[in-house]
Amino acid sequence: MNFTTFKFGNELQEGLDGMGFEKATPIQEQAIPIIQDGKDLIACAQTGTGKTAAFVLPILDKLTKVKQTNKVKVIIVAPTRELAKQIDMEIEGFSYFTNSSSYPIYGGGTGPEFENQKQALVKGTDIIICTPGRLLAHLKFDYFDASEVEHFILDEADRMLDMGFYDDIMIIAKRLPEKRQNLLFSATMPPKIRTLANKLLTNPESISLAISKPAAGITQSAYMAHDSQKVNLVRELLKAKGKDLSHVLIFASSIKSVREIKKTLNKAGMRASEMHSGLDQSEREDTIRDFKNKKIRILVATDILSRGIDIKEIELVINYEVPHDAEDYVHRIGRTARADRTGEAITLINQKQVRNFKDIEKLIEKEVPKLELPKGFEKAPKYTIAPKNKKNRKNSWQRK
């Protein structure tokens, strides 16, 4: 389906043409007509399917056809500042030929940044893209008039609930007009998302795109390894690949692991940087910019980037540990092989993580090849589920 099918206004269509948007993705084909009809929507679609455009485009088109005011019309809530900024950047591109404006509101900034956010709310920026906590900080004061908000959108709702934002979302919703369009987008659809939808949405339409398998362009492999071997294994794997790769993304589960990997790679002469919640906003922005501009070749990150980065040239993703949830594996390795490119994904598995990786293979309906460790490494654990520790049972005479 071509975008001309949606009959957007000339201003928006001109922006789409300029950006080379022609064919709609499945989530866009299904969601856009529902949003154009003004209905509430709950949609399950994973990262990389074009869901941002699915809700941004019909909203932008509506804004071009209504009278401009000095009040906020749209609130988009996202779990992280990275995703909020990414959505704002996409809106800037789509709205280039329109009169619509947007502004991202998130924490971690300075006093002047808070004041700029305040002015965006007071003067009525059309679209506010925000993290829950930061918007609540502004709502504590009386300067934000939300009386003309017509669209309330939750993006990556499952991640927000995982981060404990349920109460924040409900407080924000109560401050908005009852008559509004509610859109809820989530990569997964656990029962808690259904509960949230039942409280916020009115007679919603529902779209559920089954979580897609990893892109065909991704070459997947795995290594069994003891935890003590992993950091050196990462170093050797990257050494073997040489300097041909311009974008390598390594996911680790903790800030401690991120820093250990970065330190090891830097000592080996490989320029690596880190990304996690322990960095302040300016450091995170500088790091992402340098990674995009290829000033940094290797980025070691926590899951903060599993759904909040849009760099099409990532060639290799390494999972330092097996993700706890099988669907998170698909999100992580989906950072590579984007836009019909090819890429590689490598996962390091210790024996305690075998059960989780078998769940991943079941989800993607594919057995991932397990490769031999490089020469010089001690023997790896076997790809078998570790037996559960049995509590020592006391003999009957000990119980007397």
Structure description:
With 400 residues, this protein is an alpha/beta fold. The chain is 38% helix and 16% strand. It has 2 domains: 3-208, P-loop containing nucleotide triphosphate hydrolases (Rossmann fold), CATH 3.40.50; 218-371, 3-Layer(aba) Sandwich (Rossmann fold), CATH 3.40.50. β10, α12 and β11 (298-301) form a beta-alpha-beta unit. α2 runs parallel beside α3. Residues 391-400 have low confidence and may be disordered.
The major beta sheet can be summarized as: 7 strands, parallel
Strand line-up in the sheet with most strands: 3-4-2-5-6-1-7
Strand/helix succession = HHEHEHEHEHEHHEHEEHEHEHEEHEHE
Provide the number of structural domains.
2
* Estimated structural class: alpha/beta
Radius of gyration: 23 Å
CATH superfamily of the largest domain: P-loop containing nucleotide triphosphate hydrolases
Given the structure, what is the number of helices? 14
Note the beta-strand portion: 15-25%
Shape designation? globular
CATH topology of the largest domain: Rossmann fold
